[in-house]
Every structure is written in structure tokens, then in C-alpha cells.
Amino acid sequence: MTDPLLRRRLRRARRALTQPEQREHAEAVCQRLISSGLLHAARRIAFYLPLHGELNPMPIRERLPGRRRWYLPVLRQHAPGRLWFVRFDAQSRLQRNRFGILEPVVHQRRIVPPQGLNLILVPLVGFDAECHRIGMGAGFYDRSLAFLGSRQHWQRPRLIGLAHECQRVEAIEPEPWDRPMDAIVTEQALYRRAIQSPDEIGRALWS
Q: What is the pTM of this model?
């Protein structure tokens, strides 16, 4: 289990960045990620609205060429602790959920389960070079992406964490339910996760 003191320290470091630093980092991550080719084939992409110093993904949405559909996470009403992803565009209305976080008003025809996405841009509190992630601690993404641990799902969204370099730690000991990222991008580097098992090789070939 992640040390609460470490989580607080990383959140303080993130919030301590100035607004010019935040903008500079977001632009650098955008350029690095687009030039990497990791987004090239993605047509249905989930992102997030940044809070408390999280790396802002909006430049990616604004500058990524081509016609794509964008989705935001929404708390599922009848599945506590899990997320839906709802289409977001210029006509979308936002409302605050029970945590005070803005999310799109749900319309059934605009809902996509995580299995239906090509790529998910994931916020994080901390990470290591092996692409393990420390989240906020509530486990929403881990529970919503638990299907990735099953070999029955060959088609899967690629998971890319967005972070500031100041959020990197030496090593994270993952819990069994933790979902690693396929890559993590900061203003300084792009970290890619090595494929480690036969099941992961199969899923990568079919993703």
C-alpha cells in the first residue's frame, strides 16, 4: 500500500508548480506524445479535466490532427467505484459530481465502456520508470480497468499516464489490482513499459 505521506508529498510538489511551469509542461508533453506516434491510430480517446496541479491534457486535444471522438470519465451511478466514459464536445454540458469534480451530463447514447476506447489518458499522483502508477487512492481507474487482467479481452485501450517529472519516484511496489500504464509522458521524457508475460504479448498484438 502506498505511503500516505508519499502521496501527500507528491501532490504538494505538483501543486507547487507555477502557472507558467504548468503551461510549459503541458505543451512539452503534448509535443512529445504527438511526435511519438502513440496516438496515431486512436479514434476514441478518453482524457480528464485537470485538478490540483495535474498535467493538463487539453493541448493534446486541441492539437491532435484528424477526426477523433473525445470522452471524459463519469462516476457510474449503479456501480460504485467504477467509471463510465461519456462523449465530450462543444455541445456537452458539465455538472459537478459528489466529489465536486466536473463531468459531462450523461446521455445514454454517448456512453462508452472502457473496452470501447482506443486510448485513455490517465492522471496520476506518482509513477516510476516501469510505468507503475500511484493514483489518488480511491481506485476508480483500477476497478474500471480490471478487465485488462483477463486474457479474454484481446482488444484493449492503450493506457498513457500524463505527469510532471517531479512526480517520478525510484520504484513503486504494485498491488495485485493495480493497472500499469503502457507509457507515461512528462515534460522531460517518455517512459514505455516492457511487455512481460505471454498474455500481455497477445493483448499487445491485438490492440
A: 0.88
